[in-house]
Amino acid sequence: MDKWLEAVDSFLKEECIPSLHDFNLKSNSYSKTGYEVKRYIMPKTIEQLVSIIRFLRLNEIQFKVIGEMTNILFLDSVIYGTFISTKFLNRISFTEVNCSVEVGKFLPDLVREFAMRGYTGVEGLEGIPGGIGGAIFMNAGAYGYTVSDLIDRVECIDKNSNLIWLTKEELEFAKRESIFKKNNSLIITRAVFNLNIGDEKDIYRKIETYHIARHSYQEWVYPNLGSIYTFDGSVYDQLSKSRKIFRIKFFILKFLFFNKLIRLIRRKNPSNRILNRLVELDCSFSEYKDLFSHKNLNTFLNKNYASHVLLSFIFRLGRELGDSAILENEILIDYIYKIINQEEYEKCMSIIN
Ligand SMILES: Cc1cc2nc3c(=O)[nH]c(=O)nc-3n(C[C@H](O)[C@H](O)[C@H](O)COP(=O)(O)OP(=O)(O)OC[C@H]3O[C@@H](n4cnc5c(N)ncnc54)[C@H](O)[C@@H]3O)c2cc1C
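A: This is the predicted complex of the input protein with flavin-adenine dinucleotide.
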């Protein structure tokens, strides 16, 4: 066994920090991508998280902190080294004015914790399947709500492995942006949210509405990572920006098939098949037609594809969408312990570069 793995294992044993060896990513990641990670570490307390991070940094061992993995696409041609999962860090407490929540709390659970107590302001986040840490990292949002809306301050581990608090101003929140995206030495541990009392019926109605909307508009059948790219408007609006003929056809199809009446009739099973077909024809996209959702072109489908197949679609779509579209899904090309399929790995890297 490698020396660094032995050192990590003995530290974890000494500190009673749970971990798994050769953790299967293909089965356990949200997108069902990847192969394995050598050590999957699951601290039970923030103190344990700080101590393992301090140890890894002192020993110059690279690590990746993860939540629910709902925004990460893993390569199947490599074995990754060390992941730290925050899943067990999910304690929550309330005072009269605020709520303190640990980083691993599942976002839909936080929304229910608020609803149970009659607090409003997070309802639109109910269906985002990530943890608080991943959500703060990218300022996740939906239906006009973002996770940063009610944040008062966030506790994190700094580059010297000390716990510090950052105020909302210091967190540099913007659309799908935060300080944590720019500075990866900062590890989120806890967040404090302000509380606003709402109307119980109104909270209930909103959560129900957003839940139903997600179930009809979101891809549920094949594993995916939600929206691949971020931009203003729909993916078809974005494609229209630089294509005049496409734009005209898009408006005609929208008028014919996506007017109020048709949307009402098809509300239980909405689909964008017609618009996707337009993209297939006008953007020479036919070879990718099995790779995206009929609900949304901006969502890939994993039908047990090799990583390079998914990447070829993601990067081709990116070229079509133009520079103003920001890649939201993260493709994990670092923290690699070993390449196990050189040919597949090189295919992936040639697409990414
Ligand atoms: C079906 C589906 C629907 C989705 N809908 C939405 C949506 O409506 N809106 C939206 O914004 N997103 C959406 N997403 C994307 C995703 O769920 C969110 O971005 C979520 O907040 C990610 O959280 P996570 O715990 O899964 O993070 P992960 O995927 O595990 O990690 C994401 C990034 O955050 C970093 N990170 C995680 N924890 C920490 C930490 N403690 N400290 C520092 N960095 C950390 C990781 O290193 C990684 O870089 C959707 C995804 C899916 C699969």
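The chain has three domains: 3-85, 92-209, 230-325. The pocket of flavin-adenine dinucleotide is lined by residues 30, 64-72, 86, 103, 128-131, 133-135, 137-138, 140-142, 180, 187-188, 218, 224-226, 330 (CB under 6 Å).
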